[in-house]
């Protein structure tokens, strides 16, 4: 199952971002929330955004694959998802807008295409 590859890579990305949050918490001695620390706010934002978007995209990709979606399409969307998530998180952690916008456009494009693809496969 092709989607398993992207689910695993997405999970590893979320774990990486989790460690970024943990490192900021430890370094700034903040047990809960963000303590008003900008670097912790950015790390939490990158992490939470990944946990909000990756699971839905993976579910849609998996359902598309189970519904008969072509493997190359699943690979294309999976790669685009990972690129989008990387660009977005990297930009948040660097406090830059440019990569954030591109990352979200790519990610939402994947989710939109996968949702439409699932509808097409459902009705055909």
List the keywords:
124 residues; mainly alpha; Four Helix Bundle (Hemerythrin (Met), subunit A); 4 helices; 85% helix; 0% strand
Count of all domains: 1
User: Could you tell me the radius of gyration in angstroms?
Assistant: 16 Å
CATH superfamily: Membrane associated eicosanoid/glutathione metabolism-like domain
**Highest CATH level, the class:** Mainly Alpha
CATH topology, by name, is Four Helix Bundle (Hemerythrin (Met), subunit A)
- CA(first)-CA(last) distance: 22 Å
What is the correct CATH architecture?
Answer: Up-down Bundle
Low-confidence residue ranges: none
N to C succession of SSEs: HHHH
> How would a textbook summarize the main sheet?
none
Indicate the mean pLDDT: 96
> Strand content of the residues, in percent?
under 5%
Helix content: over 70%
| Structural shape | elongated
Count of helical segments?
4
